[in-house]
Amino acid sequence: MTSADLFDLLSGALIALGSSTVFVLVLFLGFCIILGFPKLRVTAGRKFMTIKSLEEKVGQEAFAKYLPASSPHGPIDVLRTPELLEHKK
What we know:
Blueprint: H1 3-36, H2 54-58, H3 82-88
């Protein structure tokens, strides 16, 4: 095996590896772009299959209302601890 044959073998392997890498990359990006375009369309309710947010899926009335900071939050009210009450005096 001569050095010219070895060079041809290595260059052929590098070209094959590079071209297969480029092919897979183009295929992957093509699928991502083609399948990503439907996400850009405007949705208007439950009749569309593309859901962009949880609000769109369940509706705005389903979200919990935020409680004011002065309301008790569970078994321990962290806003009315002895340390904080002592600090207010």
